[in-house]
TrEMBL record:
PROSITE patterns linked to this entry: GH16_2
GO biological process: carbohydrate metabolic process
Organism: Lentinus brumalis
Name recorded for this polypeptide: Concanavalin A-like lectin/glucanase
Top-level taxon in the UniProt lineage: Eukaryota
SUPFAM superfamilies assigned to the protein according to its UniProt record, in alphabetical order: Concanavalin A-like lectins/glucanases
Matching CDD domains: Glyco_hydrolase_16 (cd00413)
Length: 246
């Protein structure tokens, strides 16, 4: 009976989302229109500080497309007590359940920010690629240097996240590199320029989610450090997503 029932289930075709931001200049569209045409939105909300010395504010004006790149800017010079101006873009689809998510980008050499490419339902259903610009090659008491790969704890106990930091195979600030997150029911695999650099098979997200790209700072030496004293800009050349929806 089970094979018959399975045969009756409809096949759900994978969805694809590919955006080459070098096509923006000839599109005749505004940034908001171009992103909307590709089923992407700019975030606009505040994140109040919890353990961080600074909160941050995702601003639509900190998202731009310049010289063929989607730019996510963290503005420099935030004074104590202020919210760090930050940037975030996400998919309209919020029912993504498994897939392969590729981002080709150049990270900022300016210390004090976190660039993130990640699946997100909530803080307990999240798989992350994160670039900490203060900790490319050297860490501190709290942070290991390298590319941060994390599955957030699915029981919301973030002292038990699944995390590893891996050395960068190449300098992420001097040229374009492809970051890939491959999410399945059993594991999240992470790649740098097509090379497998990590496999995390605990705390694997299991709920329909969005995919987000952001850049922000909380000024906490235990993570982002900073905030930056000058503008820190993440440059994304291309995104290429293939995924299932629930």
């Amino acid at each position: 009976m089970l094979p018959i029932l399975l045969a009756l289930l409809p096949l759900v075709a994978a969805k694809t989302l590919t955006v080459d931001f070098s096509t923006f200049a000839s599109s005749g569209l505004t940034v908001a229109e171009f992103l909307d045409q590709h089923q992407l939105y700019r975030s606009a909300y505040n994140v109040t500080p919890a353990e961080d010395p600074y909160g941050h504010q995702f601003r639509t004006e900190n998202v731009d497309i310049q010289n063929g790149y989607l730019t996510l800017k963290v503005s420099g010079g935030t004074q104590p007590g202020g919210l760090v101006p930050s940037a975030e873009v996400g998919t309209y689809d919020s029912n993504i359940l498994y897939g392969t998510f590729k981002t080709t980008a150049i990270s900022s050499p300016v210390p004090g920010v976190c660039h993130g490419f990640f699946t997100y339902k909530d803080d307990c259903q999240e798989a992350d690629i994160e670039i900490l610009t203060s900790f490319y090659n050297t860490g501190n008491t709290y942070v290991q240097p390298g590319l941060e790969l994390t599955n957030q704890n699915t029981a919301c106990d973030h002292t038990h996240n699944t995390n590893t930091a891996v050395p960068y195979p190449a300098d992420p600030t001097t040229g374009e590199h492809e970051y890939t997150l491959e999410w399945s029911a059993s594991a999240v695999k992470y790649y740098f320029d097509g090379q497998l650099v990590g496999t995390l098979n605990t705390n694997v997200p299991s709920q329909p989610s969005s995919f987000l790209w952001n850049s922000w700072s909380g000024g906490n030496v235990k993570w982002t450090a900073g905030p930056p004293t000058q503008d820190a800009i993440l440059r994304i050349k291309k995104i290429d997503l293939t995924y299932q929806t629930a």
